[in-house]
Amino acid sequence: MDANTGNVIVEGLITYIGLVILLTFHEFGHAWVALKCGDDTAKLQGRVSLNPIVHIDPIGTVLLPLIMLFTPVGRFLIGWAKPVPVNPHNLRHPRSDDILVTMAGPAMNLVLAVALVGLARVGVLIRVPDMVDLCDSMAQLSLLLCFFNLIPIPPLDGSHVLRNLTGMSYETYWQLSRYGFIAVILVLQIPQVRWLLWTAVDGTFALLAFCFGFSS
Question: Residues 14-27: pLDDT tens digits?
Answer without folding.
Answer: 999 999 999 999 99
